[in-house]
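**Archive record**
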Amino acid sequence: MKAKHSNNLSIFKKIIIVFFIILLICSIYFFMQNKKERTESNISNNSDEQTNSSVEVVENINMPDKIENYNVLGKIVIDKVGIEQYILEVPNKEQTMEALELGVIKFYAPDFNLNEPGNFCIEGHNYQEIFGHLMNIEKDDTFYIIDKTNSKKVTYKIYDKYTVYPDNLDSLNQETNDKREVTLITCTPGNLTRLIIKAREI
């Protein structure tokens, strides 16, 4: 009888061991499945964040290659005040005044195109049809720029607005921590100071 009882006990132990092995395998399986679902969820969320970023691709853009002798780099649109201007590239400083009569210009942006990391500075006269309404925009207003080369549209939010004397060039600083920034520059009434609008990519 003792041998039989011992055999029953041994079988019972084996069943318990097998049960715990199965339980361990099931636990590992469910843990791996849960981890996989979390990973897929994170990938989906990252994809959504990229989709909702400030960079869009615009189809069927219609911009001229040139305005008179100046290449068109892209377009700036500030819906709040009805500003829509082509951004012109000026080959040399001697042509700046002539180009400013035609629209807004790439004033300072060394070695990069529109909508790239850095501080892209755009200058325009305070004529009503050009940058005259810049004084009516405020912090947190937005505008966008479309790059003619790759059809990319980037939206920017204004974070600062101030005036300086013409010899103050601090607004041209390129230290942006690798962020996209835009500086808009125009004269104030009377042309004694310059209005500076600072914006960065949303």
Notes: The CA atoms of residues 73 and 87 lie 6 Å apart. The chain has a mean pLDDT of 85.
